[in-house]
Design goal:
By secondary structure, the protein is mainly alpha-helical. The protein is built from six helices and two strands. 43% of the residues lie in helices and 5% in strands.
C-alpha cells in the first residue's frame, strides 16, 4: 500500500521520496489548475496591497511640492487673465530637476505632465516648490493631469467672477487637489 503522493512524502512500499507532480493526465490538469489559481491569488493580493501606493502618486509629495504663490498671487486683478505672462520656459534641465526629485529618470516622459500645484491662474508661482510630475490618463485613469486641468479652469473662473476667494482656492488645491475636485468641480 502506498501513501498519497505529495511533496516530501515517502512510499510505504519502498521508502523512497515520491514526486509531488502527479503522473495521470487528469491529475496533471488538476495540479496545474491549482498552481495557476494560487499564482493568480498571489498576484491579486499584491495588486490590492500596492493600490494605496499608486493612489498616493496622484498627489504631489508635500515635502517636495508644497505649493507656492507669486508675490502678486493674492491679487485677483494681477492673476485673472494673466497666467501665461507668469509661465517660465520648461527647459530640459528644469524638467529633469523636477523628475529626479520624484525618483523618475531624467528625459521625456509622455505619461507625466510637469504641473503647477497651485495653478498660475490662481497666483501660483513658477518656482520648483510649486512643480511636480503629474500622471496623465495613460497611466492614471481617474486622478490625472486632465482631471486637475478641469478643476483649475473651473476654480479660476470662480475666482475671476468673484464666486470664490483666491486664498481659499489656493489653499484648497495646495492641501489636496482631489478633495478640492470633489468639493468644487463635482458639486457644480
Amino acid at each position: 500500500m502506498e501513501a498519497r503522493r505529495g511533496s516530501g512524502e515517502r512510499s510505504l512500499h519502498t521508502g523512497e521520496v515520491v514526486s509531488s507532480i502527479p503522473t495521470a493526465p487528469t491529475s496533471l490538469i488538476n495540479y496545474f489548475v491549482a498552481t495557476i489559481s494560487k499564482l493568480l491569488a498571489i498576484i491579486l493580493l499584491a495588486g490590492a496591497l500596492a493600490a494605496p501606493a499608486f493612489a498616493f502618486d496622484t498627489r504631489p509629495n508635500p515635502n517636495l511640492t508644497g505649493g507656492s504663490v507669486r508675490v502678486d498671487g493674492h491679487d485677483v486683478q494681477a492673476t485673472c487673465g494673466h497666467a501665461k505672462a507668469h509661465r517660465g520656459s520648461m527647459s530640459h534641465a528644469r524638467r529633469d530637476e523636477i523628475l529626479t526629485r520624484y525618483g523618475l529618470p531624467p528625459g521625456d516622459h509622455p505619461d507625466y505632465e510637469i504641473d503647477h500645484l497651485i495653478p498660475l491662474c490662481l497666483g501660483g508661482s513658477d518656482d520648483p516648490s510649486n512643480l511636480w510630475p503629474e500622471p496623465r490618463r495613460t497611466i492614471e485613469p481617474k486622478w490625472n493631469a486632465e482631471a486637475k486641468d478641469r478643476l483649475e479652469r473651473f476654480m479660476c473662473d470662480m475666482v475671476c467672477s468673484g464666486q470664490l476667494d483666491i486664498g481659499t482656492a489656493q489653499e484648497a488645491i495646495a492641501k489636496d487637489w482631489i478633495a478640492a475636485y470633489h468639493k468644487y468641480y463635482e458639486a457644480h
